[in-house]
Every structure is written in C-alpha cells, then in structure tokens.
Amino acid sequence: MSGARSHAGLPLASQLRVYEPLEAFNAAERSRIERSLGEHAAGRVELDQAEADAAMGRIIGSAGDPFPDSAAEFTRTLTVDGRKLYCPSQLVLRSGLAAESVLTTAPAQLANVLLPEAARNRHQERVDQIAAEAASPRVNTRESLWGIPFSWFVLFHQQDPTEVVEQDGRIRTVRITTSWSKAISRARFAVANLALAAPEMNMLDELTALTEWLEEFHPDSAVELDYGAVADRVHPDESPLDVLLGIECLAEGDMTGAAAAYRRLASRWIPIRQLARAS
Asked: Where exactly are the structural domains of the chain?
C-alpha cells in the first residue's frame, strides 16, 4: 500500500508517545514487541499508513466489530544516543479505554450501534488478558483529535530535536522529541508555577494528570510529540514557546504578557478545533 495515500474524512489526530528501553517491559510485552517488529518491519511513514489502513478496515468492515485484536499491534522505535527505545501501539488497551469513554458519554442506543455488545465482550476478554500480566498496565500513547492540548507543549522546547516529514509537497507530520527527564522536569516546573499563580486554570489539572502519567515510565525513556496531519496546517509552530512564555508571565504576575501568549495560541488552534464541528 502506498504511503502517499491518506484517508479523507478521518479526524486530524496527534499523539504523545513515551519510548522505553526493552527492559522496562515485562516478558509478555517484550514478546508482543518482538513479534510486531517482525511482522511490520517498515519505516515510520509506512507503519503510520498501515495502522491507519487497518483502523479504516475495521470501521468500514462488514463484520460489525470495530475492535482490534493482538494481530493489529504495531511497535514504533526511536534511537537516542545509540540506544533503541520502543513504543508499542497497545491498540487493544487503548481501544478498551476509548470504548469506556463512548459508553459513559454517548446515548445508550448510539453506543450500542457503534460498539455492539458481542464485540465489546470479545474485546473485554483481550483487555482482561493483558491486565492479568501486570497489576496496572501503563499506556505509552495518548491521542488527541482536532488539535493538540496546550498542556502537551509544556513538555517540549523550541530547541528540542524536530523532524519535519514531507511528502508530495505537503507536510505529513512533525515530530518533536525530548528526554523523559527534561519532559517531567518541565511539567513539574509548570505545575508548581501554575499552582501559585493560577490555581483555577484547567491546564493545572491537565498538567498534574500528565505529570502523574509520565512518572509511570522508565527514567531512560524519551517523549515524542507527533503532530500528525494537523502539522500541515500549523507548521512552523511556535506553540511550545508560547506556552512557556505564558506560564513564565503568569509566574511573574505579567497578565498582559500571559494574555498575549494565549491569544497567539488561540488564533492558531481554535480554527482547527472548530473543524470537528464542520460538516
């Protein structure tokens, strides 16, 4: 399948990923990682496309089962300072969490159409099997549709390694990476300053949850922000700088500077978030 193809109509999705050394995973996780690497030995663009193709196939398939099975698992790799790090897609776990969200937020009749009960029960067995391997399985990937949460940008600075992936005259994605230690240090700095300067901000709660999530991972990990298709609409993007300036201004009591940083962010991201409601 051509890596140049994209699926029209799919939401713009971005991911925040944590890549860990192989020793951070338990035996069953390592087995799945090694198996998926053997089955999907491709570059990042081809792997991203294969994952999107598989998802679309489940959505439009006639089986009436939108859930992935273990055969659909992919693993992304990242080499940092000569060390290879791994981020399994964990589609079974993540699909289970997404299904829970749909079931608790959507009307029951619609939820049952989107997620038939028989399919949910089969998938729950897969989730239970993975959960039995570890008391609290951690999820290495967070996904956001129609824009990137401002809290994610806290983890990155403008000077962090950035890869711009272009194809057929368009930007396919932008990926920013940093070390786990830098990411969590930045998150803790932001939480401390917002707790003092703006405890009522929603971002404080988001950052607190984000920091707790990062604390679950191996200290030799790396963190990656993958813009996905939204990159073509915002690159070059100064959101990490604007978020940093906004937090620093709040900490210094400079409300004018903080408001200016927020306006720059809003002018960049609100139009993209509005696409979610476009017909």
From this structure: 13-277
